[in-house]
Amino acid sequence: MKTRITELFGIQHPIIQGGMHYVGFAELAAAVSNAGGLGIITGLTQKTPALLAEEIAKCRTLTSKPFGVNLTFLPTVSSPDYPGYIKAILDGGVKAVETAGNNPQKWLPMLHEAGVKVIHKCTSVRHSLKAQAIGCDAVSVDGFECGGHPGEDDIPNFILLPRAADELKIPFVASGGMADGRSLVAALALGAEGINMGTRFIATKEAPVHQNVKDAIVAASELDTRLVMRPLRNTERVLKNAAVDRLLEKEKTLGANLKFEDIIEEVAGVYPKIMLDGAMEAGAWSCGMVAGLIHDVPTCKELIDRIMAEAHQLIAERLARFDRG
User: Fold this and answer.
1) Which residue in 111, 132, 34 sits closest to 69, CA to CA?
2) Radius of gyration of the chain (CA)
3) What are the tens digits of pLDDT across the range 179-209?
4) Are 31 and 59 in contact (CB under 8 A)?
5) Which of 43, 57, 182 is nearest to 100 (CA)?
6) Whether the Cβ atoms of residue 100 and residue 20 lie closer than 8 Å to each other
């Protein structure tokens, strides 16, 4: 299947594995790329640029296909060594970067000069237009259903994607709620050129996370996520657990007086405990409503092959049937 996204990144299928904290390691990125999608290493999970360089080198030994690196620009006082991370990306010959968080404009010239294609994560049409204006090559349009940070507008993909298609000239992929061939065909119908999957790729054989995490996603329904940190305007969609219940109770009790320090125990430094150790009640962790559509833990190749087979069948058979008059 050829789309502007497959052409842009030199991949076989219009499926991207989004960057995920303590999930996007070389093993998963390589498995997705080997299956014809675009695998993504999560840059800031690697604590230093040197460690990111090692992870990129490791990925090179696992795949000869294109893969990318996610770099999230955080609004923090003590900023990570972004020049160092970008140098590691460029020295490693990576040609695709998924940016997220703050405006990546200052870093685009050096990335583009090295032939890197940049796709920026956006949760609104206005942010997507800004990404286009500053020179991003593509955007990932994230609907309200997505795991992680859905923004503050609460617009689901059935509205957000056609709005983006109406306004954008650069290609975009749909993110949030994407799990199968139906997701891909619907995204294409609404104007996207492919899909970005996060939660669905956690529940794969190659995802280097604890089995408890995969089991929790398979067991969850679409009703089992919650929105946290909304009073701080840093809304995150997470899977319900004891820590999330505590966090929400603090938000309710403290109301307008809530500060980040009040919930630090539930959100800071919890990802290694959950993703690596399988301590499922350790804190709040990102998970999309798409968990309700996830019922197994296939390999990345099995998953991507299945998605593409379903998509082609839907287009050629089910949808074609409605077009026969």
Assistant:
1) 111
2) 19
3) 999 999 999 999 999 999 999 999 999 999 9
4) no
5) 43
6) no
